[in-house]
Amino acid sequence: MLYLERLLKNKITYLILLIIVIISSIQQEIVKGLPNYLIFTIFVISFSILFYKNYQFEKKIKEKSSITLNIFVVLFFSIFLSFALKIPLKFLVIEGRSSKEIIKKCEITNFISGRNDRISYKLENQNYDISYDNEMHLTREELIKNYKIYINYSDSWFNTKVINSYWVEK
Q: Distance (Å, rounded) from C-alpha 166 to C-alpha 152?
């Protein structure tokens, strides 16, 4: 736990996190279909590195703390780190997309209205959802029955799709 405490007190850690957040906010494209094995691999690597570094640090200063507490703290930071590392991964997927744009008309399978409206659709036998600004105040039934969503996307690495734009039409 002491190594992670030292990381939290370092101002460079916060600067790096700020840069990652700024880069992610600049990204306008949406990545769909990022494989779970890739996300899991990122998590396992971050957990292993943090656990090892924490163990080495405790050994160096010759202080022992609870192994259970260490695992939970490292687990928490590993989840956070894997989310942070997913941002540059998405950036790489966006940069690696093909120049060929594909426009597909997809059927709307569901509409969820709330604080953030979302449309579910099926693209190449995969279910996806995307945020939607319901300016016309359409009901769920109207959207599902009478409208289609058009997805303009490019294929990229790891069999992912980078959505360049989308729109809903009758």
A: 6
Residue type, 59: K
Residue whose structure tokens are 């029955």: 145
Phi, psi of 35 (to 5 degrees): -65, 140
DSSP 124-162: TTEEEEEE---TT---HHHHHHH-EEEEEEEE-GGG-EE
The answer to whether residues 102 and 109 touch, using CB atoms and an 8 Å cutoff, is no
CA angle 46, 52, 54 (to 5 degrees): 100
DSSP-assigned letters across all residues of 8-56: HH-HHHHHHHHHHHHHHHH--SEEE---HHHHHHHHHHHHHHHHHHHHH
Nearest Cα to 108, choosing from 152, 29, 167, 161?
167
How do residues 53-110 score in pLDDT, each as one tens digit? 877 777 777 666 667 777 777 888 888 788 778 888 888 888 889 889 999 999 999 9
Gap between the Cα atoms of 153 and 166, Å rounded: 9
Q: Which residues of 110-134 are buried (b: 16+ CB within 10 A; e: fewer)?
A: ebeeeeeeebbbebeeeebeeebee
Candidates 85, 81, 106, 109; CA nearest to 168 is 106
